[in-house]
Amino acid sequence: MPYVNIRVAGTLDKVQKAKISRGVTDVIAREANKPPESIIIFIDEVPHENIAKNGELLTPPK
Amino acid sequence: MPYVNIRVAGTLDKVQKAKISRGVTDVIAREANKPPESIIIFIDEVPHENIAKNGELLTPPK
Amino acid sequence: MPYVNIRVAGTLDKVQKAKISRGVTDVIAREANKPPESIIIFIDEVPHENIAKNGELLTPPK
Amino acid sequence: MPYVNIRVAGTLDKVQKAKISRGVTDVIAREANKPPESIIIFIDEVPHENIAKNGELLTPPK
Amino acid sequence: MPYVNIRVAGTLDKVQKAKISRGVTDVIAREANKPPESIIIFIDEVPHENIAKNGELLTPPK
Amino acid sequence: MPYVNIRVAGTLDKVQKAKISRGVTDVIAREANKPPESIIIFIDEVPHENIAKNGELLTPPK
């Protein structure tokens, strides 16, 4: 029943999302010994101005 | 202080969100013995192309 | 493919977790029109000293 | 490697997000003794109609 | 700045966690075009009795 | 109704959790203009072997 949440800065196109989903599912199914059909992935595309590192937004206000 | 996060594929209308919130709050208040006014629910409506099962997006690229 | 995360302060016994899971699944299946077998719930039991409200831990240090 | 997720009802402007990020990073770096450059913050702006308290949406349907 | 949260039922040994982390990081770095050193993964090992599917705990009470 | 989740590697003592909760609540109340009594914080203390950066666990297997 693995649940995976992937949060990235900015957007991904549909092919990128498909390849990430396939690849991450394969890794977890193989290494954790879980049936792939039980693996659910949610991808969150988060605007750069909503993410901070070291106290700074990725796109800071001017 | 229960916190609930509900993630669904696609969108819900406002009446659905209201009924889910009422129903889920009632269940948790009753079964977990928590004051309903302490229960917070966040509903996330996630696009089908951002969710994968069995390594496939719910709406795969063509 | 609804995913639900319920975080409560303290612990629940197994019967409480079972009743909450049944009740929350029924509500979401009915109101959001989702097949119940697609609904996954994760319950997190969080120690009182790891939760704060109004800037105070639920069990503050002396 | 602290990860922080802040979910607020409604929207924030960029200056608010920047000040929150700076302030929260400073607090965690100082009190938890973590290098500020290792602290990542994700801010989620959630519509009022997707949040419920006491079984009621913050903006209920009429 | 990708953040990944992987929640599994039960426990994993350290080698499994290491292989999953390596594999998932490689997939995301390659497909999403992100520097691997910016990818953070948190693995949550969740007891079977805290996870439900179809309204039933993975290990239901007798 | 701000909800904050802070995930740290390793453990914090109760005084650290109290100071972080107070400080983070003050920052969000002030900068986002939210009543402090509406701000809920959950702190997750995550074992080093369950966190990876750059594809490596913080405490890798030998």
Explained architecture:
- Chains A, B, C, D, E, F: It comes from Desulfomarina profundi.
- Chains A, B, C, D, E, F: This is 4-oxalocrotonate tautomerase-like domain-containing protein.
- Chains A, B, C, D, E, F: InterPro entries: 4-OT-like_dom.
- Six copies of one chain form a homohexamer.
- The radius of gyration of chain A is 15 Å and the shape is elongated.
- The mean pLDDT of chain A is 97.
- Chain A has 62 residues and is α+β, with helices and mostly antiparallel strands.
- In chain A, the strands form two sheets. A two-stranded parallel sheet of chain A has the order 1-2. The first copy, chain A, has a two-stranded antiparallel ribbon with strand order 3-4.
- The longest helix of chain A has 19 residues, at 14-32.
- Chain A has a single domain (3-47), classed as 2-Layer Sandwich (Macrophage Migration Inhibitory Factor), CATH 3.30.429.10.
- Chain A is built from one helix and four strands; from the N terminus they run βαβββ.
- In chain A, β3 and β4 (56-57) form a beta hairpin.
- Chains in contact: A-B, A-C, A-D, A-E, B-C, B-D, B-F, C-E, C-F, D-E, D-F, E-F.
- At the D-F interface, β1 and α1 of D face β1 and α1 of F.
- β2 (40-46) of chain E pairs antiparallel with β3 of chain F, so a sheet runs across the interface.
